[in-house]
Please model this.
Amino acid sequence: MPMSLRHIEVFHAVYTAGSVIGAAQSLHVSQPSVSKVLRHAESRLGYALFRRVKGRLAPTDEAHALFREVDELYGRIGSLQITARNLKRGGEGHIRLAVVPSLGLGIAPQAIARFRRRYPQVSFDVRTVHHSEILKVLYERESDIVVAFEAPPHPRLTLVDMAIGRVGLLYREADLPEAPEALDLAVLEGRDVIGIVGSGPVGALVSAEMETHGLGLAEVISVHTYYVAAALVRHGAGMAVVDEYTARSAIDDQIRFRPLAPAVRFRVQCVHLDDRAPSGATAAFVETLVQVFAEQGQA
Model:
């Protein structure tokens, strides 16, 4: 016979806690209650889920296999709870915005400040997301829209182009004095390069360009965010290939940015679920974002 939801709950708790005592504490029930439900589950299944080894509970091979399915089920239940909570928080006067980290220090704050001067009654919830998280934050209603670079195609997603960005080199002026208006990737050969791990579509574009020209660069430092790369450039640890929006937040008297030649460009896109069109307030905010992107491009 199949396991009941109560069986699944107790099995998950015992497996995760590693003991009946820990499971009882996490479920806020008595130890005998946990033991009784666990025995009943094993009776229904027809095989043992745990064996006592040296005074401790050890999952059987069947339990390990079963837990993979149960843990996935718990993940979906957690997603359902998040969605239910976020539905309550949503509304016409509240915009839940997610942006890639490169837009979190410049474009997004500028657009939000401008929009709220015009619509002070609209509130915001703002978060940064990585490329791989786009569908998740939309599906769980953590965000109404995501602004990202080259968003992944998906049957449930609607992608709207907002701007075209450029990829370029971030460096200290002392390292490349009087550099031309655009730089070839070959300028990095023989230099210390700061690489970005898991840098998404922008990194993929750069990798393809390097492969096309047969370039092999020496990445002496690997980081996971563009802003850390920019900070390392500022302190003289090397040069980094970044998007122009990261660069704008890093440029100062010593730090410079030059786009690559030949040009490496990417699309900036607004993403929402196909069956959840943006509210009127969100749509108006998207128009403000487009204006800010256009102004930045002219600058």
Q: What stands out?
A: The domain at 92-162+267-298 is CATH 3.40.190.10 (D-Maltodextrin-Binding Protein; domain 2). The chain has a mean pLDDT of 87. The chain has ten helices and eleven strands.
